[in-house]
Amino acid sequence: MISFLEKSINELESREQLHSTEFESSLMATCYKLRDKKLQNYSIEELRVMIGQNISLTWLIPLALD
Q1: How many domains does the chain have?
Q2: 59 closest CA partner among 9, 2, 3
Q3: Which tens digits make up the pLDDT trace of 4-56?
Q4: Where does residue 42 rank: exposed (0-12), middle (13-18), buried (19+ CB within 10 A)?
Q5: Taking the model in full, what pTM does it have?
Q6: Kind and range of the H or E run holding 24
Q7: Which residues contact 19 (CB under 8 A, 6 or more apart)?
Q8: Of 5, 17, 60, 66, which has the maximum CB count within 10 A?
Q9: Do 58 and 50 meet the contact criterion of CB atoms below 8 Å apart?
């Protein structure tokens, strides 16, 4: 069985990544980029950013508490 840490948020939520070069802010661009990153590779700062934006808290809060 594959651990959820080996997947990205987009994989866990069965969503396709939005591939756009135009975002309203650098924060928005960062969040979209992080949705494709494997959870096991998130840094503390990346967790902070995503949790601060209330993105995928179901997956990120347990990871942050670990």
Answers
A1: 1
A2: 9
A3: 899 999 999 987 766 666 778 899 989 999 999 999 999 999 999 999 999 99
A4: buried
A5: 0.84
A6: none
A7: none
A8: 60
A9: no
Structural domain contains residue 9: no
pLDDT for the residue numbered 17 = 66
Whether residue 32 is contained in a domain is answered as yes
Amino acid, single-letter form, for residue 45:
E
What's the chain's length in residues? 66
**Are residues 31 and 53 in contact, defined by beta-carbon separation less than 8 angstroms?**
yes
Report how many helices (DSSP H) and strands (DSSP E) the chain contains, helices first: 4, 0
Asked if the structure places residue 3 within a domain, the reply is: no
Report how far residue 46's alpha carbon sits from residue 30's, in angstroms, rounded to the nearest whole number.
Answer: 9
Place of tokens 């949705």: 35
